[in-house]
Amino acid sequence: MKVQVLGPADFQKMPWKNGLGVTTELAVARRPGEDGFDWRISTATVATAGPFSVFAGIDRSLAIVRGGSLTLNVEGRDDVTLTTQTSPYAFGGELAVSSMPTLETAGVPIDDFNVMTRRSEWQHTLVQHRLTGDVVTWALPAQADSVAFLYCAEGEGGVSVAFANGEAVNVPAGHALRLDQIDAPACQLRAEGPSSDVFLTCVTRLHG
């Protein structure tokens, strides 16, 4: 299994597709074409109301990292308000979406976490956990070409990730863990301090 701990020097900032904000790209599988990726994992800041970029044929999941709440107006659906306590919200990238942030602190934008996969070839899952004293088992995908990705958003001391072979790595706050060529069914997560907030993503290629 290929294990990589990634930090800010490995991430790439880029403007939103619609030019109205900035995304920090944490991991990506690039491809030629208008959107330029098969899948992408990223964070972004939202300070003002406005529309989302359109990504036809892309499945998206969005979660709040910190900074307040974000109310989404999604084409054909009831409005939904996301906070750090709500589950990630899934929607199609071709839908017309606009957002209205409510900031916890004036002038400090909301940070969100976003996963996008090309619907015809890939699928993804996204869950968020607040780790405290208990060990949490993270089930990993079985397919060899899958990618598992952990982002530690908050937490003094970061997160310890233990593998079945006895090895372990620490992922500090603001860093990520990427697993490729996965050959284990699960790993164990534990906060190194009082608590840690993590986002867990698995990206899997569709077959057949």
Automatic annotation (TrEMBL):
Annotated SUPFAM superfamilies: RmlC-like cupins (SSF51182)
InterPro entries in alphabetical order: RmlC-like_jellyroll, RmlC_Cupin_sf, Uncharacterised_HutD/Ves
Domain of life: Bacteria
Transmembrane annotation, as ranges: none
Gene3D superfamilies reported for this sequence: Jelly Rolls (2.60.120.10)
Pfam families for this protein: HutD
Protein name as annotated: Protein Ves
Native organism: Pandoraea iniqua
